[in-house]
Design goal:
heterodimer; A: alpha+beta; Jelly Rolls; 6-stranded antiparallel sheet; 6 helices; 20 strands; globular; B: mainly beta; 10-stranded mixed sheet; two-stranded antiparallel ribbon; 2 helices; 6% helix; 47% strand
Amino acid sequence: MTAIDNDVVKSDTTNAEGYHKFELGEFTFSRDEYFVYIGWPTGSHMMSIDAFLRALQRDVAWDFFYGIVNFDGVFGTMNHYGTVDIFAGRYNDSYRKAELDYSENHETPVIRETFKSILADWTNASFDPFASPHETGAAWGVKSGDNLAAVTRRRVAAARMVGVPGDEQIRTDESGMPVNRMFRDIDQSEPIIEVEPGFEGEVAAFNLFAFLSRSDVTWNPSVVSICKDSLFCPTTEEYILPIIHGNDRVEWFIQLSDQITWDVEDRDTGAVRSRVTMKAGDVCAMPADIRHQGYSPKRSMLLVWENGSLDIPELIASGKAPTYPVEF
Amino acid sequence: MGTPSKSGGVEKSAYTTVLGSLDSYDKGGVELINDDARHYAFSNIFEVASKSAPWEKVAVAKNFEYVLEAVRAEGTSQWRTAAHDEFVVCLDGAVTVELVKLDASPLAPDAGGSIALDGEPTGRPMGRIHLARGHQALLPSGAAYRFSAPSPAVLMMQTIAGPDTQFRWAEICQTV
């Protein structure tokens, strides 16, 4: 365990299953055919490898997202936007009371590169961590090729709006983004745009539902429009959100199609607080002191609406801003 | 009867996507275990629009100064403008957007939210956009815009709270 490449510490050799072992600070990571084994100075933890890779894929793709990405009830990361905490048991009431929780803070590039390396090494050719269970083969088994094209997909992030000249463009068959099997009934017609000369870059529109119907990933918000810090981050959801997202700010969900059910727990302890069922047209806030995990029986369209201001976590943590969106 | 998937399971041969509309929506809700329903500000855009007057801008989500507004589109709106980009998503029906580049904006560059304009705007026509369900359009900074909908439609606006934004949380949200 001495090879250091681009701040990534991994074993010189592979284990009997063909995978490298990784280290990040005092944390260690290894996998076999079915499980990942995570170690730290005060304990250890096991997760099913498919669940771990699905969570790891989101954490990497979202660059640690807003707030806490719980891989499960024990292990996860918390984003400080420049540095990231990697923790075990930090947001688990039993681990905290037993004083068995453990956390380290790392510069974002170090944890980013380590997680990307684990994802690349441990994802076999048969498995796509972004896909729904019906759309991928298994994560199990000994090392068998890789799926770098899947795990390094580029995240769509518009600077102004999808479809504006020079910005992110719409998805088409020709661009390799066919309509998903569960959205074949979505109208694919684009808006009719009549532009006066000189305003080609200002008069813009696109079919948001068609754009989403052609997404080849699940539980991976794209940014499609930006009004200062207000970000429209729609996504298509199927099966289970692979992480339990702990908020560091209020975020909002707008269900655009079908149905998602959310389990909502206290962010710090995991105590159950509510169960939210969202149907098309429903709008619901996720307060800044909760964590949530969603279940989507059929592929659905969800608009996640974020305020991307970097000031908010500190305002909420210091009590200068409320954890709830509105008072009434 | 179905289609074999990569997982080895069998899927249905066809799926139906459920979208909402003014005439047909089914509202979910918050099942409380140990919380207050008001923390979630749970509402439904189609229900809000069904109870709104045409072109009222009713906030259904708020995050600091930013809001999402539900708008019942019916007939022709006033001309409006904002000093920042806004966006509109048509969630039901069909709506036409007219755009005019204002010769002079009545708003300060850092003003938040849109305002109504008196009468017709002065400036160059920029174009028109015809939106149907699921379509999203840019309402560019410094432009005047006007909507028209021959029959009732529903819009969702991504914007900043302005003088005409209506806050009716107690009316529109689940409270118990």
